[in-house]
Amino acid sequence: MGIVFEPKEVEEHRVGSLENFIEKAGGCAVIDGGFATQLELHGASINDPLWSALCLIDNPHLLSKVHLEYLEAGADIIVTSSYQATLPGFISRGLSLEQGEKLLEKSVKLATEARDDFWESVKKIPDHTYNRALVAASIGSYGAYLADGSEYSGYYGPDVDLNKVKDFHRRRLQVLVEAGPDLLAFETIPNKLEAQAVAELLEEENVEIPSWVCFSSVDGVNAPSGESFKECLEVLNTSKRIAAVGINCAPPQFVHDLIKKFKELTGKVIVVYPNSGEIWDGVAKRWLPSKCFNDDKFKVFATRWRDSGAKLIGGCCRTTPSTTRALSKVLKQSSLATN
To answer: What's the half-sphere exposure (Cβ side, CA atoms, 13 Å) at 139?
Structure first.
């Protein structure tokens, strides 16, 4: 599975490559924003258990278009459309295992091609402010596959144990790693069980690509399961294969305090990309009316998040390339001012 490093070399290669990238980006790199949100703005109908991954089957050109929009907006890291792209999910749609694996590979290929094409065009422009973006392969939680809202409750039922969660993720992880992304993004992890499964699986598969693991939070204090982040991070802190930990798809008003909490609990890079503040009803499959953050608020809060210790910052559901552009502008301006 690629080059084999000695244990110490693995750690230095994995963590160092991400930290070097962050340093090159000015000390804080910008992650893109809501993928499904932008697809829907372009007319995609994705009210489906596969969610944005449905476009891997029906509208791959839209995926390329959205990646390009986020790159143009200044994203330093773009995340693939594979969040709910699972082999059981594809098979349930009548696809073969091989077809499902090809679609997973396609999610990485589309993002990589968009990044490479964009970089070829902008690197010829004198004094441009873009960085050559990294591609992060999205790996949604087991709850995201269930599509029953359990990624926001953390309750997977009495029959789901550590081995079942690892077996669920294993082949998808193998296929995505083989597709050659720069990073792996484990997203909306709701409990300690799945965090432990991720850490053990990365070790068992000898994964050399830097990974981040992001939890969701519904109360701004604990993981959705009710377990403390101290408990959840303990199983990740010992992993040399996880370069960053953080929060995604939680309300932005929770993020500042959670960054401070994570700074006390881990020495890993901290990554945050909250949603707009709107609330997703996982059962009714709709966004509930609620107060949300506009781009101006995101700009103000992003500098606070960075100053509190976050080094990877972006947006999740209901944020757009406009949000990314605002984040990129304020974070790059402030980094230039301090250099």
So the answer is: 30
The H or E element that residue 248 is part of is strand 242-248
Does the reported pTM lie above 0.85? yes
Q: Using pLDDT thresholds of 50, 70 and 90, give the confidence band for residue 44.
A: confident
Which among 200, 137, 146, 144 has a CA at the least distance from the CA of 173?
Answer: 137
pLDDT tens readout for residues 155-186: 999 999 999 999 999 999 999 999 999 999 99
How far apart are the C-alpha atoms of 36 and 318, rounded to whole Å?
Answer: 8
SS3 21: helix
CB of 75 within 8 A of CB of 35?
Answer: no
Q: How far apart are CA 202 and CA 200, in angstroms?
A: 6
What's phi and psi for 210, nearest 5 deg? -60, 140
Tokens of 204: 């068992």
Rounded CA separation 118/31 (Å):
16
Q: Which residue has the tokens 């441009």?
A: 128
Q: Strands (DSSP E) along 289-329, which ranges?
A: 310-313
Helix (H) or strand (E) holding 269: strand 269-273
pLDDT digit string (tens) for 178-189? 999 999 999 999
Burial code (b: 16+ CB inside 10 Å, e: under 16) for 19-30 equals: eebbeebbebbb
**With the C-alpha atoms ordered 309, 313, 316, 321, is the resulting torsion angle positive or negative?**
positive
